[in-house]
Structure formats: C-alpha cells, structure tokens
C-alpha cells in the first residue's frame, strides 16, 4: 500500500493551514481529564502486563474511565506513534501497529470526527510507514495517515518559558486538533539513554537537528511547554534493551508484554524508566520536565493501578 504526498488542494481539504505562520504558544488547549463521574477517583497511571497490546490497551483504558474521558463526539484526534524507522514490527523499533489500530478504533467508537496518524521519520517516510505496518493498520481502522516529510507541512511557533527551544516548526495538524494521543515505544537510545513519551514528540517537529546541536534533553523538555498530550500510551510489548534506537540485534529485544497509560508524560516516562531498569533521576529530560512542571516524576505521590492479564 503506497502513501502519496498530499497535493495542495487535497491538503487544504483536511482543514489545515498552508505555509509557515508564526504563532505564540500556547496556541491551543487540549483536555487533560474529562471526568465522567467526579465521585470516581481514577488512577493517575495504569501499568498492565502479560497480554497482547490490543487487550492490554482495552483493559488499561477501561481502568482510566474509558476513552470517552479523553475523546468527545465530533473532535479531531491525533494519534502519534513512533514510525521513525523502516523496520518490521518484530524488531521493536517502532510502536506496535496493533496497538495503534486499537487506539484509533476506540477514538472512532467514542465519536471522533477524524483521526490522524503521522510521524516525521528518520528513514525514508514511505518505507517507514509501510514496513512498520502502521500505515496499513491505521487506514484499516479508519484513520487518515498524513505525510510529515516536507517542511511545507510545518509552521513556526514560539515557546514562552523555554530555556533553549524558544522557536520551532511544528506539524500543522497539531494546532488544529482537539485531542493528542502520544503512543511511543519504550526502547534504549544512544543519546538520551531512553526514548519514551517526551522524546517521541520530536517526531512532531521539523528540525530535529537543532535539538542535537543545542542540547537534546533541554529541547525535549522545552517542547513539552507547548505540546502536552491529552493521553500517553507507552508500548512496552517488545523493548529494545541495547543498540537503540534502531540497530538492535534480535538478542537486544526483550518480549516484556507490558503497557503504561497516563495523561502525565513526566510520570509515564519515570514509570517506563523504572520498568526498563533505570533510575528516572538519571534521564535528564525527565528531571527537566519536572522542573518545567510538566508532570510528576515522584511516583510515590501518584495513584497507580497495576494490572495483570
């Protein structure tokens, strides 16, 4: 299945703005918690293990109060997986395609008007979309798979309060969406030790090179001041334990069969780091995210529900 770049007319039909427009963050406000019943104390984070990705998400989102807490009828949703590498699902280099499909299905069942999937990939975008199987699964579930490989799809924003990343070009889908669901895969990373939820947002910006040249951890934390996902779902089904993000050997990939879900990206990264076997205090962007007040990395302060299938 091939994905072609959107022509100008087709692109405009999606309701996006064409060309770079300078705006000042915060440009939008995504709902962080839509309490279905204020009398119910929902968990801050759900950790689940010993299941297939689809079944684990079904149970985890139920424990969080259902997808309807986060997605309302008529809303536009972005589901942002890691599709960075032209690798097959069994390598663990990208988010599990079955998990992406199930999240889309839940959003549409909740009445979402439109669900978009995209990533600014590291390898050739067509090969990444296809070999990861995310393109095929997303389309089969009813989502629109959007291109993100060209600078024309991005617009410049400024980030008040940022230490380093004061301006950046973000994908034009982002300012127009109502709900942003961040779906990273947990894996080792040569530059940041781990790539999880906060780092997965690099796939929503154009110039990732700036991050690497000016301070990777600080830029990751700074972008969180602009882009704070409605919901984060960490795929820890197949976990790359070494030689990440995409050069893992078969022996480097561990079948962990776990999943985490939270609206707090700092908390979920801290929990995922512990699941990996790392101290969150050693991952600088998690500490910087806490300093930016993007979330809570001290897990003992949170209501965490642990489930086993």
3D architecture notes:
- The chain has 309 residues and is of the alpha/beta class.
- It has one domain (8-308): 3-Layer(aba) Sandwich (Rossmann fold).
- The protein is built from 11 helices and 13 strands.
- It has helices at 8-13, 53-63, 97-109, 125-131, 134-141, 173-176, 197-200, 208-214, 216-223, 265-276, 284-291; strands at 23-24, 45-49, 76-81, 114-117, 144-145, 154-158, 167-171, 179-183, 185-189, 193-195, 231-240, 253-262, 304-308.
- Helix 2 (53-63) packs across helix 3 (97-109), helix 8 packs across helix 9 (216-223) and helix 9 packs across helix 11.
- The longest helix is centred in the middle third of the chain and has 13 residues, at 97-109.
- The radius of gyration is 18 Å and the shape is globular.
Summarize this, please?
It contains 11 helices and 13 strands. It has 309 residues and is an alpha/beta fold. Strands 2, 3, 4, 5, 8, 9, 10, 11, 12 and 13 form a 10-stranded mixed β-sheet that branches. Strands 1-6-7 form a 3-stranded mixed β-sheet.
């Amino acid at each position: 299945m091939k994905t072609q770049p959107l022509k100008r007319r087709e692109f405009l039909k999606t309701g996006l703005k064409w060309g770079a427009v300078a705006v000042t963050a915060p440009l939008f406000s995504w709902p962080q918690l839509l309490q279905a019943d204020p009398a119910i104390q929902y968990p801050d984070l759900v950790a689940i293990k010993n299941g297939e990705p689809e079944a684990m998400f079904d149970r985890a989102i139920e424990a969080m109060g259902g997808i309807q807490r986060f997605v309302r009828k008529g809303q536009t949703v972005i589901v942002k997986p890691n599709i960075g590498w032209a690798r097959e699902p069994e390598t663990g280099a990208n988010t599990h395609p079955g998990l992406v499909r199930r999240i889309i299905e839940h959003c549409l069942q909740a009445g979402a008007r439109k669900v978009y999937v995209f990533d600014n990939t590291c390898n050739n975008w067509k090969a990444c979309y296809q070999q990861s199987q995310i393109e095929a699964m997303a389309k089969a579930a009813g989502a629109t798979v959007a291109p993100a490989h060209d600078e024309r799809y991005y617009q410049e924003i400024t980030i008040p309060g940022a230490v380093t990343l004061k301006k950046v070009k973000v994908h034009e889908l982002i300012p127009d969406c109502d709900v942003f669901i961040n779906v990273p895969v947990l894996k080792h990373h040569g530059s940041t030790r781990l790539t999880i939820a906060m780092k997965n947002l690099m796939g929503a910006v154009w110039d990732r090179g700036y991050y690497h040249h000016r301070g990777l951890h600080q830029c990751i934390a700074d972008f969180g001041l602009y882009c704070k996902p409605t919901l984060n779902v960490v795929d820890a089904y197949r976990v790359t334990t070494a030689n990440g993000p995409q050069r893992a050997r078969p022996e480097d990939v561990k079948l962990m069969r776990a999943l985490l879900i939270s609206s707090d990206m700092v908390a979920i990264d801290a929990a995922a780091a512990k699941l990996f076997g790392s101290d969150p205090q050693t991952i600088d962007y998690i500490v910087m995210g806490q300093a930016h007040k993007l979330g809570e990395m001290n897990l003992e302060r949170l209501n965490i529900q642990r489930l086993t299938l």
